[in-house]
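Researcher: Please translate sequence to structure tokens.
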Amino acid sequence: MSNTNKINRDLDYDVVVIGAGIAGLGAGYFLSEQAKVVVLEQEEQPAYHSTGRSAALYIEGYENPVVAGLTAQSGAFFRTQHEGARPLLHDRGGLAIAIEGQERALSKYLSIWQPFCPNLKPVTAAECRLICPILDDKKLIGGAYDPDWKSIDTHELVQIYLRGLRKNQSTLQTGQKVAALEPRGEGWEVRTNKETFNSRWVVNAAGAWANEVAQLAGLTPIDLTPMRRTAAMIEAPVEASEWPVVHSMSGDLYFKPEGASLMVSPQDETPSSPVDAFPEDLDIAIAVDNFSKISDYPVNHVQHSWAGLRTFTGDRLPVLGPDPNSNSFFWLAGQGGFGVQTSPALGKVTADSILNNKPIDQIIHRQRFS
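Model: Translation complete:
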């Protein structure tokens, strides 16, 4: 460990991580292998907001090449059989479907993602219906199928991270809303609604609240926009448990098996302030309508629905690295809809950068400040 990043044992903690979503828990897990860490969460339980409302898929051909690379780097962690844990990945498959007029979009999708996903292949409309029997093949022109999409057991992933924290004599503290951050020498004094923590480093993993945390530290907010995503559960036939995730080339629908139901989403991205998100009736109606347009399966009623916030930068890449005005304040934000599947890679990069001075890929760590 370098002298620059030498741990000060006189402090309460080496690192305070703000936010116990999947990003903060992943960072805390890897940091705790070498440092004493406390993860602070304003809610009374971890993974309450975006993490607990995520579709939780492992997709190596997702969003953009940078995210795809981070996902692939996380693969070994997901495939490891962790002590005392259930397997994290389960076979699911992913089917992209296209309607008339989307031939070009389908061709582009295949050309972009086949280099990352060797088993991704084009399929006919009839094959789409064989893969997912409720699809109306008369309304489709074809699609693309990737058998390598996996479901992630998010609950088990959270428990692995929490067990790792405890094993390494670090901790999660809930109900701790950060009220102030003050520089103290080379470190920080972090005051919450309950108590005060002193640490060498602060990791800002506050999700939709990341800019608010930065402002408490006297630092400049960056290009982050929380966006609401809606999902609803509808009744499904028994055989649906074997179906893949189905998503539209137009980006206005996906659905996936979830227990004895189907989770349906209009893939909405509505800018929002940092709040405990709730679904809008209109978005639920749009999801059901879009589902009905490509399916011959009747939707009799919506069982329940929810919404969550996914926070994006303008270029849809994560923000990772020290603030240019404070090397001891580390950003871990902007994971959009890929936070769960990239959390092992981003957590390890965070720990290696803070504790071992390992450089961060410049594509991820850029000057995002005006």
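Researcher: Any highlights?
Model: The domain at 94-148+225-312 is CATH 3.30.9.10 (D-Amino Acid Oxidase; Chain A, domain 2).
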